[in-house]
UniProtKB/TrEMBL annotation, chains A, B:
Belongs to the aspartokinase family. One of its GO terms (biological process) is diaminopimelate biosynthetic process. It comes from Flexivirga oryzae. Keywords: Amino-acid biosynthesis, ATP-binding, Diaminopimelate biosynthesis, Kinase, Lysine biosynthesis, Nucleotide-binding, Transferase. It catalyses: L-aspartate + ATP = 4-phospho-L-aspartate + ADP. It holds the Pfam family ACT_9. The lineage of its organism: Bacteria, Bacillati, Actinomycetota, Actinomycetes, Micrococcales. This is Aspartokinase.
Length: 423, 423
């Protein structure tokens, strides 16, 4: 019997009516002849309400206790979904992350799954039950403490369980119809992609696309697991994120998978760094000690006459002030002249595995931006991605120009439903 | 170092401010030189809200899933109390019932504690942490499922942990000042009892006193554990429920501990039962098959001429219709003439271990009721208790008359705070 893992996000479980709708869908999947294991997030705004409560008793709550608190959210939704399934005459068993065998490291609030031992799940499935698992949570291997997985954690739970159970597919239900060629709120002509390679999806997620989190995509890629991203509000097919086949390009795939954008980054330029070995290393060691994730890095050509160079990098805006302060405090040790901080930037990325075999993609990309009068401030590339930094207030125009230049605009007038960023 | 187990009920944890107040109290107890293990109920109305949610998705939810849902309530409060303690600069670790080693049978919704293996608690206490445990919940020995203990479950958790940890005292914090000689809402002159024997408390709880649940008192009695019932809203001493010392009466104890009343019962009279061996057994076997708990039983003197007798018993009003229906269905088999059902009754009990050595208590009791013009419909007695059934609308008058007759009315004008029934 095929085994389907489904994941429902908080927006699909907002209230009792939504829960009953999801239960109906799960029972339909079971009746269609599948074993079904479902991962649920907390209902609607539950997590935010719990965070408000925590904030009311302590401005900086211990992470262990915060995880204990937040995991109550998924516990509630999994029990309610199980009850709603029972009410439809089918039988369901709910399991916490710990009961489901989701073993993590001990980094509270951002734990990583290191093993899955789903003995209780396979037992319950074998007995004919539908299984409901709390997403976003696990138990730490060494300390046996309850942990949470951080943003996108329920998607990661679903993919990890699907891999451990050797499932046929992992369905991620959300409030949008699938993966789009661009964010439809910015590009009204964007259209849903029927299929996208795992590799492309990974670049999309890393470049700002919100529907699937990067960690979940990485996990699916590692285990060669197909993901079906679809809406819980319709029965239409969504987007299949399919595993790459070794040494074999997908000849039917379009050259370009989509355009991603990210307005959440800032840029720091370290001006007048000594152009000697170790200068860049010293800067980025300092930044990494601040637990700041750097994205793009550009070092300008050295001006031979001065023996000095400028180093620019992008980072999350939320980490900006911390990084600037750390650099400023180390100015003498690092020996630079000045710092520039700019949080009015936007990042635009073009993703497509077809780039590998189609030269000229970058040229078309840059020409489209030039024709739209948009200046490029930084460029980085990977094998299947080109990313640029522009002025922030021109980012939306840039996304539309590139989307059109690569012929991605939808011509069939398909109604696009886009209700949020998903989680 | 002394070890104190404290239990805080939902009314003491109604909101963030209450939680901070409770945290302060816990930290004060720790600073006074005690190890502290705290059992918490769910916040305020959380349990009712969760039950409403369950009802909205399923009119008859599976008990396993209902337990999974309800246990989220204590999980939230324990994490929040821990955070509030951390915010005061002390360190706390919260544990679910399962983590705390509360092992139960597998009767979901009304599980009984069969063992406590508090290894993680003793470890945490040894490391200098304050320990917070979710009340009302455990894990079943055979099935490893999450269970709840039913009404008064958090008190029972506290007493069971106190026994397992060999604690010096178990403090039950509630919204009243302690155990009163009668319910102060009915008898304004009722006063707080400073101490009461475990045996008396057991009779009080069984007779309708709500502050401590019967199961919790039974547990404490079995383990010779002193309980201190007190208010979380003041620092006054409450009532000490002390273990009996074998073969030794407490000469300082008052003759009468208090007057308990219970308006929640109904009376069934089975009229014209054949006065032969086995008739009563057949009736009560039938009732027990309905999972109905019988309280008082009276069989009238057999009328020799007819060879028939009447059997009366009391039971919870909520079970009344079910019991009547079962008896009616078995009328032919049981061979009685008719049934009388009366839910307009009240039960009044006088409790005091001094009765054992002071004859005349019953006479004074009956005389007080006679003087107040109150008819007695049923009587039962134990070694330290006399209970009667009266008309329901006379119950409050009866309580006051008896309270006065035994000199229990407070003369010192002590302000009595009574905010609820406790849980």
């Amino acid at each position: 019997m095929p085994l389907v893992v489904q994941k429902y996000g908080g927006s699909s479980l907002a209230d009792a009516e939504s829960i009953k709708r999801v239960a109906r869908r799960i029972v339909d999947t079971r009746k269609a002849g599948n074993q079904v294991c479902v991962v649920v997030s907390a209902m609607g705004d539950t997590t935010d309400e719990l965070l408000d409560l925590a904030d009311a008793v302590s401005p900086a709550p211990p992470e262990r206790e915060l995880d204990m608190l937040l995991t109550a959210g998924e516990r509630m939704s999994m029990a309610l979904v199980s009850m709603a399934i029972a009410n439809l005459g089918d039988s369901a068993r709910s399991f916490t992350g710990s009961q489901a065998g989701v073993i993590t490291d001990d980094a509270h609030g951002k734990a990583r799954i290191i093993d899955v031992t789903p003995g209780r799940i396979t037992d319950a499935l074998a007995k004919g039950h539908i299984v409901i698992v709390a997403g976003f949570q696990g138990v730490s291997q060494n300390t046996k403490e309850i942990t949470t997985l951080g943003r996108g954690g329920s998607d990661t739970t679903a993919v990890a369980l699907a891999a451990a159970l050797n499932a046929d597919v992992c369905e991620i239900y959300t409030d949008v119809d699938g993966i789009f060629t661009a964010d439809p709120r910015i590009v009204p002509t964007a259209h849903k992609v029927d299929r996208i390679s795992n590799e492309e999806m990974q670049e999309m997620a890393a470049s700002g696309a919100k529907v699937l989190m990067l960690r979940c995509v990485e996990y699916a890629r590692r285990f060669n697991l197909p993901i079906h991203v679809r809406s819980s509000f319709s029965y239409r097919e969504g987007t299949w994120v399919y595993p790459a086949v070794e040494g074999e390009d997908d000849v039917e795939a379009p050259i370009i998978a989509g355009v991603a954008h990210d307005p959440s980054e800032a840029k720091i330029t370290v001006v007048g760094v000594k152009d000697t070995p170790g200068s860049a290393a010293a800067i980025f060691n300092l930044i990494s000690q601040q637990q700041v994730n750097i994205d793009m890095i550009v070092q300008n050509v050295s001006a031979v006459a001065t023996g000095k160079t400028d180093v620019s990098f992008t980072l999350p805006k939320t980490d900006g002030q911390r990084a600037v302060q750390a650099l400023q405090d180390a100015k003498d040790a690092l020996g630079f002249e000045s710092l520039q901080y700019d949080d009015q930037i936007g990042k635009l990325s073009l993703i497509g595995s077809g780039m590998r075999s189609h030269p000229g993609v970058s040229a078309t990309f840059f020409q489209a931006l030039a024709d739209a009068g948009i200046n490029i401030e930084m460029i980085t590339t990977s094998e299947i991605r080109v990313s640029v930094v522009t002025r922030g207030d021109l980012l939306d125009d840039a996304v539309r120009a590139v989307h059109t230049a690569f012929g991605l605009d939808s011509s069939d007038g398909e109604a696009v439903v886009y209700g949020g960023t998903g989680r």
